[in-house]
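chain below, 442 aa
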Amino acid sequence: MSPAERWYWIIDQLSTLNVCARVRIEGELPAAVLRNALGALQARHPMLRLAITEEPSDSSGTGARFVPTSNAIPLREVTLSESDDSRWVREVDGHELAEPIDWRSGPLARAVVIGQPGQIHDLVITVPHCISDGTTALALLRQWVRLAAEPPVPGRSPAENGSTPVPVPVEALFPAHYRVMSGILPDKAAADGDGPEADPGEVGRLEPERFVPFHQRRTRLLHRFLGSRVLQSLATACRREGVTLHGVLAAAMACAVARDAGAPPPAHFAVGSPVAFRDELERPVSEDEVGCYVSAVHSVVRYQPGDLWSMARFINRDIAARRQRGEQYSVFSLLADQGPTGVADSGPLVQYIEEHGSFNFFVSNIGRFDFPGKLGAWGLSGAQFVGGISVVGYFASSVTTSHDQLSWNFTYIDEAISRERAERLVDDSVRAVLAAAETAAC
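prediction:
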């Protein structure tokens, strides 16, 4: 495993770190069709035909590597006798984000189909973060659906493994000048105050209500979405203000956290932004390639409750500047130089992130994702992803724009953040964005 893959695998063992993708299909859809399509999907991607094994190592005591498995991707079936549009949310919250993938037996994926009256089906595919980001999960879901829509070919066995090699580790594709960077842990002041702005002094973070031991942490889900009319108004307002949608969402979450803390302006808060770098690599990587092609940068933004647009503009500039400096790659050098080899020696780095990490709330926005709205007789809607948190924060959101809808899935660490408080943070974030959308008519 590469340093990044190993790191995600380690913290997944501390607290489940899965990525889920969901879509709704309306129309006749037999489970056998879905199972055959999963077999074809697995045959297409060698990363879906792997398990992980630990081996003794003279230097560290443990080691991990990918190994082949012949096990099929499991498909769980849930059949409802009554309509329940939110059942998929409860399945993701209660099972898919809570239960780890069985990496010892493999494969590194599983799926569920939730059928309800009226030929309505919610499909969810779940992949561990060590081989998947949000784009990967959605792309796998899209391929699964397309394969299910194809007519069967006589004599073809979808389970036959192709000869496609396992992809090289993401680190091998970095631009050459980013492959060797400092792997030294910064001190707390540098971690909190780094950025194009002058040192803002003390930087606010989301304070938990209680400390939950790392191995007891659980990601919980609160689902929200913005419909097409609101999304269009928000896009219009963003164009007028010269900001990206991501900037507005990140600013809204920072405002919600600041208000929750009772912080007076001009307090500063650090909000994280996972960013994709598929197009920056020496060989550009398509959406359909399996892997985790994201890193994260943070923005220390000044809390301006009356001016969300100024906060959004700063976040946009700050992310651009940090990416220009290559900060999205520095964590990989850190993991290569000082990253743990297993759960047993992961404590110091996990504790450092808890106490001095540059952010502990973040928004992961993959932007617009092209998912078909119709395939044959099927109607498709609501494509979106949800990512777990594990031990790298307390409050996050996963954002997908698809099927004329912005899906905003908020996640939080149970007990560290009470459900009541999480709902307050979520509703405050959404209110701020809705208010920004209303300015489109001004």
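Confidence is low (pLDDT under 50) at residues 182-198. The two ends are 53 Å apart (CA to CA).
thats it, cya
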